[in-house]
């Protein structure tokens, strides 16, 4: 799979190549999805909820990176980072596209995407208040850490997607692999433009709370619309997934707390070489599922 160069490459004169690849996923996302494509209703609606947040969320990540870029000094040591930012934008744009197709299917199933409106309203408020590009970037860094944490769990624990439709497993693992691949780009830009630790942590706590509340609310709405909310099995599945002995909350806690450290970097700890290896292994073993764009 040889990535081809695009005109966007010329935007970074003389930069070295990035290790990031923009890929086009070759999975069919237009064929109608089963109302229950995962092994149970709770997981189906939880993953659906996450997908609903992505087109708006990932556009925000792209915009915040573009907004902060003029603050990055024109120095040779930043050429690699500039190249990585272009690739980051390309990857997030590809994710948006796939999730928009996926979300269009959810709409035909009668699900209502409220999360995108909550996010858009929050973004409009931030613009009205004239939030500094560094603060907007701190918000992106926080979301990128949360998505990298979820991505790590998705790739490491087969049960995250066990029993799901094959193409959905592929789509979520492709997204997870690329989230791990580009997990440090926003953070490196934040550091390079002089972003500080206090603001990074403050915005992280805000994002953590917002994401937990909005993911829960959208999942509940989806379950309500699909008529599965008031079933004991749904609640048991949900509790087991988050708070069971091997629940997502406990598995993710070390990584979630690590972000608070002053010396945090996305490539440390659990998100370090293990994560990167898992992502690269998946991308290599599933190279027939994607085509390199650049
Ligand atoms: Fe993404
Ligand atoms: Fe991302």
What sort of overall outline do the alpha carbons produce when their principal axes are compared?
globular
- How much strand? under 5%
- Note the total helix count: 10
User: Order of strands across the widest beta sheet?
Assistant: 1-2
> What number of domains?
1
How far apart are the termini?
10 Å
Q: Largest sheet, if any?
A: 2 strands, antiparallel
Structural class: mainly alpha
Helical fraction equals 55-70%
Task: Encode the helix/strand succession as letters.
Answer: EHHHHHHHHHHE
Low-confidence stretches: 1-15
**Overall pLDDT, averaged?**
93
| Rg (CA only) | 19 Å
Bound chemical compounds? fe (ii) ion
Report the strand count. 2
Compile the SSE list and pairings.
Blueprint: E1 23-25, H1 41-68, H2 79-108, H3 115-128, H4 133-156, H5 166-181, H6 185-192, H7 197-225, H8 232-243, H9 248-258, H10 273-285, E2 290-292
Antiparallel strand pairs: 1-2
Helix pairs in contact: 1-2, 1-3, 1-4, 1-7, 2-6, 4-5, 4-6, 4-7, 4-9, 5-10
The structure holds fe (ii) ion (FE2) (2 copies).
Provide a short characterization of the protein structure:
With 294 residues, the protein is an all-alpha fold.
């Amino acid at each position: 799979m040889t990535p081809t160069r695009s005109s966007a490459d010329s935007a970074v004169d003389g930069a070295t190549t990035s290790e990031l690849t923009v890929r086009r996923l070759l999975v069919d996302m237009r064929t109608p999805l089963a109302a229950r494509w995962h092994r149970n209703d709770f997981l189906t609606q939880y993953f659906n909820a996450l997908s609903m947040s992505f087109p708006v969320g990932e556009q925000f990540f792209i915009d915040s990176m573009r907004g902060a870029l003029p603050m990055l000094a024109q120095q040779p040591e930043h050429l690699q980072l500039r190249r990585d930012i272009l690739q980051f934008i390309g990857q997030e744009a590809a994710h948006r596209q796939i999730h928009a197709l996926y979300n269009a299917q959810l709409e035909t199933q009668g699900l209502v995407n409220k999360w995108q409106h909550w996010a858009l309203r929050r973004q409009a408020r931030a613009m009205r208040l004239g939030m500094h590009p560094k603060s907007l970037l701190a918000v992106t860094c926080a979301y990128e850490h949360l998505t990298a944490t979820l991505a790590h769990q998705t790739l490491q624990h087969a049960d995250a997607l066990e029993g799901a439709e094959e193409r959905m497993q592929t789509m979520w693992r492709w997204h997870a692999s690329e989230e791990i691949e580009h997990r440090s780009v926003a953070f490196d830009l934040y550091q390079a433009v002089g972003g500080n630790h206090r603001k990074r942590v403050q915005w992280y706590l805000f994002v953590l709370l917002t994401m937990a509340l909005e993911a829960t609310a959208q999942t509940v709405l989806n379950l309500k619309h699909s008529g599965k909310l008031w079933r004991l099995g749904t609640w048991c599945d949900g509790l087991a997934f988050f708070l069971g002995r091997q629940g997502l909350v406990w598995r993710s806690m070390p990584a979630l707390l690590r972000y608070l450290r002053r010396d945090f970097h996305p490539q440390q700890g659990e998100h370090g070489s293990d994560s990167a290896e898992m992502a690269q292994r998946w991308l290599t073993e599933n190279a027939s599922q994607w085509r390199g764009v650049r």
